[in-house]
Amino acid sequence: MKMIGHPASLMGDDLRREVEQQLLDDLAHYLDGADRDELELDWSGACQEGHRTAALGGELEEMSGVGVRARSGRLVAEGWIDFIHGGANLPLIAFWLFLDLVVDGAVVNVKKQAEIPEHVWEKLTDESKLACTRTGAYDSRWHEDPRVVAWKRTRV
Predict the structure, then answer these.
(1) Which stretches does DSSP call E strand in the chain?
(2) What is the pLDDT of residues 102-122, one digit of tens each?
């Protein structure tokens, strides 16, 4: 069993499994040809970054320093994770906010804008998108994101 340190330990097993599955799915948008079954998340260097939610019996916080390793231990990617979760009845969507890949020993930055990726935005329901537009609410972290602002303009 792998050791999960703080803050990742606050997720609990169910939420951690869900977040790991979503992050590996999201990683596929940036990493060609990797066998997902050969990859695992490395939470050992994770650092709390403030945006929080409760879901699936645990607590998730936006974290930097999250790694992805091949089963051999080789570092494949490292980044900062975040999520959209407009409240208890809306789906939780975890994704890479910032992401660096390690290709032939060199670090390649593939996600450097602190915004919701297009492929994540496209899968959100209108209710989740609306939750992102609110200030002082559950996912107010996203109210100034360029996709959120553009979407809100089409709704007024």
Answers:
(1) 39-42, 47-55, 58-70, 75-84, 93-103, 106-111
(2) 988 899 999 999 999 999 999
